Amino acid sequence: MRLFLSEGSAQGLKVLAAAEASGARVRLERVPPDGHVVPFLTHPRVPALHLDSGTVLFSPNAICQYFFLLAGKEPNDLTNQWLEWETTELQPAVSTALYCHLVQGKKGEEVLGAIRKTLTYIDQSLTSKATPYLAGEAESVADIVLWAALFPVLRDESCLPDELHALRSWFQTMNLSEPCRSAAVSVLTPKGVQAFKLYLQKQPGPTLHWEKPAANEPEEEELAERSLSEEEIAAAAEAWARGPAALPERWQPPSPVLPVEGRRNVLITSALPYVNNVPHLGNIIGCVLSADVFARYCRLQNWNTLYVCGTDEYGTATETKALEEGLTPQQICDKYNAIHIQIYRWFDISFDYFGRTTTAHQTAIAQDIFQRLLERNMLLTDTVDQLRCERCQRFLADRFVEGICPFCNYEEARGDQCDKCGKLISAVELKKPQCKVCKDSPVVKSSQHLFLDLPQLEERLEKWLEQSWATGNWTTNSRFITRSWIRDGLKPRCITRDLKWGTPVPLDGFRDKVFYVWFDAPIGYLSITANYTDQWERWWKNPQQVQLYNFMAKDNVPFHSVIFPCTLLGAEDNYTLVNHLVATEYLNYEDGKFSKSRGVGVFGDMAQDTGIPADIWRFYLLFLRPEGQDSAFSWTDLMLKNNSELLNNLGNFVNRAGMFVCKFFGGRVPPMELGADDKRLLAHVTLELRQYNQLLEKVRIRDALRCILSISRYGNQYIQVNEPWKRIKGHDADRTRAGTVTGVAVNIAALISVMLQPYMPGISATIQRQLCVPQACNVLTDTFLCLLPPGHQIGTVTPLFQKLENEHIEALRKRFGGGQAQAACVASANVTPSGPGGGAVLAGDPQKVKELAEEVAEQADHVRQLKASKAEKGQIDGEVAKLLELKKQLAVAEGKTPEPPALKGKRK
């Protein structure tokens, strides 16, 4: 590996210290600050890490994480949170402070005061910990990264205020560590601190974010987040003048949508929602809503786009739900497929086709892929011992059997794991197993099954992954989860089950079996497309012309990055494999999890009953989209974001711009005579537009939304500074100025209506209807054009958003709080306080027993998913602890005495 650094680069401290701390072996190559480490990049990028595979990493934090991963030091959730905070909060503040101190000569006290808030935050976090490190008992990549960010400004811990004792102690410890000392010497070289100054003088100067004008004294300098060159300003003004005629013609895709040679053909899928339940807000943002934003953006870019999805309907969970509701599996699928369709229609998800997996095409395509794997010797046969219920006349899937754990003697262990001690088990290892349907004792019988030979396909998989990672936009968590699966070598994967509800296995000796749902379900993308068009192979057997994007939550990653690609690689039929795997973290609800059984959280079929429009839900979910770490839905935050970002910022600007046209200029866009300030504003808006496009190109959906809000802030500041409502009453020059400001502002509003379309399609359409924006303008480019020329007639302008009142929000919080909103009370010896859910558990309450049983099953499923995705041990342990507490509550509700926790180690 080759590591490229520039002398005096503060970011270089991170990567050098991380390399030393992790023991990574790199070849250091120094380049000048303006040197190009990759020829085709327009701008220099250091530090840069060239991997032996040819891949180049540019993000300093990503390089640091890579070094630690090579050393087997996997980050925990707290580490990831610190890294994101460093990127979004600490680094911008420190960079500005450093520039102003070393280049502009600001006093040290002033600079330290500017970053005091971030220093205090770190100090408070360290004070609350029992260890001297940020994210654990040992020095982590987070410690290295934060030390490197602070070192150029602080350098000597003695300059830290006395009250920040914990921060000072931590910083001193880091300064004395060998990796940090070595990195500081290497980056500073003999020039010392002067090396930082020389490097910074060659970089664009940041704006002093803490230098704000006094109240009621707005300044146009507020608009400048970075300095603009005269060339940029002139180019923005020239582009603006070209007007809508410079827009490319809107692409009208064929019907049905099929790949077109010479165009960018984008195929988008979101993980197929399972049909046995109603999706909650976390499910919606993790899959269909994120994919919808990107699909709408692709269409605005004139890319030939197909977005398909559907319900995943086969498998054990469907059979279980059918038993619970007294319906057939097909009736369950029909019922919940209709519920899903209605929910996604209300959320305005723009599928080109939403299908399902219980179709003839699914059977035909799945069986064809199976036959190709069989012909190429990619399948293995092995005998598996299973439990069979003679009364029910079937082998029991894991969900249908429970018994006593062979390790801790817990009496309600399930067929795949014990939720008390957390150990993975085989159903045949259970003591006194019982069929959950009829309560009979099953017997052990052998059953032959088919396995996908993943070890034989591992080399092909790794070669394909290397190529896909080098050219595609895979999220960090999707790469990490994939690496963890293949790190210790792949094992054969069973692809058949002894069930009735599924795609039949077309092979003698196995015709009484069906395909395992995780072999079968991803093939649903192909079969759903086949139900959309009989020319589906032009999408799915055309990797040369098609770019495939998969959207999902992180627990689905290994099935899409390892198992399904191996299936298609082994079938050897030129299948289109995923180029961009986009995985979110988890969205939680307030202080806990979504739970249908407890009535906790907002589920898709409930959102429309809140009185809050679908576009507000879309906006808020996308605003807090869990891209780098888990995030949490908050009713208070929803109210604040609606009232500040939407009502007071975006809505206020669009409404003012349109109202000025109607009130002062008879509803027609006035002539505009651009001055220097106006042209500078055009350049700033153009920069935000380009940033928006760059972020969405990389599927950074949450960050791109901030660009729209930034543009509306520019617009509000522009109006506030120029006061057109006053100038319209003045002399000719003032009235001309009022017309220019109004015309520019309403054109910014028109641009916002286009950029907003992927996020809030209903609000976008309303703005365009009010401003009479031509449909031809719904195309995105990298330039801000005058879309509404002088003389353009607009329509009636009305407010876009309504204020959310605290009383309404509190009522909704109580309504969707479930057990969390109930006051716990202990009325007698038969009542015991519940755990995380709140409320009380009464012995002998049948309804409570049913609710807790469902909750236990739901939590156990969650634990199994975490283990299947090889989540962090700490996260798994926490969820197992919640499960054990729920089991305890269930025992109390059933009138049983809760068992004490299993002892471990010496105490045992």
Task: Explain what this protein looks like in three dimensions.
Residues 72-206 form the GST C-terminal domain. This is Methionine--tRNA ligase, cytoplasmic. This protein is α/β, with parallel strands linked by helices and 908 residues long. The chain is 48% helix and 11% strand. The protein contains 31 helices and 22 strands. A five-stranded parallel beta sheet has the order 7-6-5-17-18, with helices on both faces. Strand 1, helix 1 (10-22) and strand 2 form a beta-alpha-beta unit. The longest helix has 31 residues, at 635-665. The chain starts with a strand and ends in a 15-residue tail after the last helix. Residues 39-44, 199-225, 819-844 and 897-908 have low confidence and may be disordered.
Shape: globular
SS class: alpha/beta
Largest β-sheet summary: 5 strands, parallel
Count of separate structural domains: 5
**Distance linking N and C termini:** 48 Å
In percent, how much strand structure appears in the residues?
Answer: 5-15%
Q: How large is the radius of gyration?
A: 30 Å
Name the CATH class of the largest domain.
Mainly Alpha
CATH architecture label of the largest domain: Up-down Bundle
The CATH topology of the largest domain is: Glutathione S-transferase Yfyf (Class Pi), Chain A, domain 2
The strand order across the widest sheet is: 7-6-5-17-18
H/I helix tally: 31
* Multimerization status: single chain
Number of strand segments: 22
Portion in helices: 40-55%
Unreliable residue runs: 39-44, 199-225, 819-844, 897-908
Mean pLDDT: 83
Pfam families: Anticodon_3, GST_C, GST_N_5, tRNA-synt_1g, WHEP-TRS
Organism: Chelonoidis abingdonii
Enzyme class: ligase
Family: Belongs to the class-I aminoacyl-tRNA synthetase family.
